[in-house]
Amino acid sequence: MAKKTTIYDIAKxxxxxxxxxxxxxxxNPKISEATRALVLEAASKMNYEQNKLALxxxxxxxxxxxxxxxxxxxxxxxxxxxGIEEELxxxxxxxxxxxxxxxxxRESANIETLLNAQxxxxxxxxxxxxxxPFKKVIDxxxxxxxxxxxxxxxxxxxVTINDFEGGYKAxxxxxxMGYKRIAHVGGDRSLLIYKDRxxxxxxxxxxxxxxxxxxxIIETKSSLQxxxxxxxxxxxxxxxxxxxxxxxxxxxxxxxxxxxxxxxxVPQDFAVVxxxxxxxxxxxxxxxxxxxxxPLEMGRMTAKVFLEQIKNASxxxxxxxxxxxxxxxxxxxxxxx
Amino acid sequence: MAKKTTIYDIAKxxxxxxxxxxxxxxxNPKISEATRALVLEAASKMNYEQNKLALxxxxxxxxxxxxxxxxxxxxxxxxxxxGIEEELxxxxxxxxxxxxxxxxxRESANIETLLNAQxxxxxxxxxxxxxxPFKKVIDxxxxxxxxxxxxxxxxxxxVTINDFEGGYKAxxxxxxMGYKRIAHVGGDRSLLIYKDRxxxxxxxxxxxxxxxxxxxIIETKSSLQxxxxxxxxxxxxxxxxxxxxxxxxxxxxxxxxxxxxxxxxVPQDFAVVxxxxxxxxxxxxxxxxxxxxxPLEMGRMTAKVFLEQIKNASxxxxxxxxxxxxxxxxxxxxxxx
DNA sequence: TTAGGTTTGGTAATCGATTGCATTTTTGCT
DNA sequence: AGCAAAAATGCAATCGATTACCAAACCTAA
Lengths: 337, 337
What we know:
The structure is a homodimer. In chain A, helix 1 (7-14) packs across helix 2 (18-25) and helix 8 packs parallel to helix 9. Chain A has 13 helices and 12 strands. Chain A is elongated and about 90 Å long. Chain A folds into 3 domains: 7-50, 434 Repressor (Amino-terminal Domain) (Orthogonal Bundle); 63-161 and 295-324, Rossmann fold; 163-293 and 329-334, Response regulator (Rossmann fold, 3-Layer(aba) Sandwich). Chain A is an alpha/beta fold. In chain A, helix 9 links the parallel strand 6 (182-186) and strand 7 (217-219). In chain A, 46% of the residues are buried. At the A-B interface, helix 4, helix 5, strand 2 and helix 6 of A face helix 4, helix 5, strand 2 and helix 6 of B. Chain A binds a DNA duplex through residues 4, 6-8, 16-23, 26, 28, 30-32, 35, 50-51, 53-60.
């Protein structure tokens, strides 16, 4: 039940004022070495520790930053958070995590609570498609940074990967391997990341002089089951596709499993490329080609952009767009025809 | 740059005192309905929001809890954190995450910073084997709860799974399937979880009247590579084992891959059971038997124990040990002989 | 000796909210 | 109308630290 010692306790002990104690502890040059030594000794003897809450109230900075993600139990977001943490901790910042489960209501609620917890910044991978909910953050002058799933807002920085390039590379790779009837199974295209990956897919086809077959294009949520279902409908088309670019590793895996169940050989009869480089894609017996989004780097970079923004708080608002380059990882599921 | 409005601003606006405003906002019955209405209206008009920092300083409670884990980018800890979050958020608590990377120095540093960030509790999966670093937390009267990787400390609650039972069930399952020469590849046994899993393994053998072969027992860190290496050494023994219980899914996978590379059939020639139910274990073409630790429930339960502890803060210290029952999940890697 | 400069340390306001106690206003009752 | 009880609000301290401004004490040089 040790009552915490404050600078007042130390002051009383030494018959000086709290102001002196504070200055001594903060290496203020207006304090003589003699008293400083006394204070430091008393402080350590009394197990003094600065109360960060009081400091935060005085300074108006909590040294906490909020991170909002759809979920924390996926490798991608887990790694991003890890990157953010590793970059921010050494600077004395703590990371407060919130999950939205892709619900915009929850996302709003999370932002709300983070704001009045007085966080020094909000790093978010949003599920919103409109900027309205973020106006308030801007108004309060709280640094806001998007990562992965961003929105286009003036004066707001973001760290993303080039999703267009990711979609393009994956598709071009399949084309280069000789596949010509390439399907696309992607996520909700009202989200920029999915829209961009899709655009990359289309562009790659166009650049190769291949035509875009609307019936080859499926929009669905990321899950094994939806991957299987996608195959079921694609396989009935005439001519049926012989390759698939997905914006999700889970869809890719579901598709591969279904293809095998139906007796197709992957990649000979049907090639598949996923997206995100989830761990299981390289653990499979027959590994899955995918696109690496460098989540650790994304997290680190997001944190760096935040720190930069904090430093220049007084100056003009800066808008920084960092776009990481995705890496195509070719594995068994698309290796040869 | 909207300067935040405080209760003083509202007070000035209405020509009353801040005390009245505070009471009105807190539904204190000493305030007349008339003024309360006025205050509420002014508050919403002026976009008032309570400054939690000031509140925290006054109350001595920050409504933040610290969660310390080896890492956040694994499915197991990610899920535990998710469970904690989901349970704690509705009660107004925020979760501050720290990673230790299994380093005890980092763990100490994390505890230190959490303490002077004035967290209301620390939930931790420790890498320590001694209780000394936690004395300070106890002294400061900050609720401390261990989960998964715990230490035995008087008056400290914990939420774990029955690791002994997990090891026992996995081993007994292999025995029931007819395997008699069962090896064990586990983690550092100075950590309780690994020691217990190992004990379960031994007990299952003893109960079945099988003898314990010391050369079948390997202690190593969790990784694919170490799994492969374990197989390399086990396979040279005479008589060579024909099954393996591991305390890690990664070791199990590494072992399976190496076995296949060497031409063995899994599970006919050699059965394998892992531990933790990592996602990839069920995504593989040939799935991996494992032990489910119910991480989401573990997280939720840990949070509940914390909330309970907070509520009874004034009363005697309570020590609550929650032990979840692990579930053996039988899959391809051990299904038949 | 004295005006003026340096050190060193103290005083008191501030950050934003809560709350025990005192005071004022209102109400109710005779 | 008079007055005690009840209701509504104000005053000021508190949580723990920082810091602008002020005030001693000491020193220096003419």
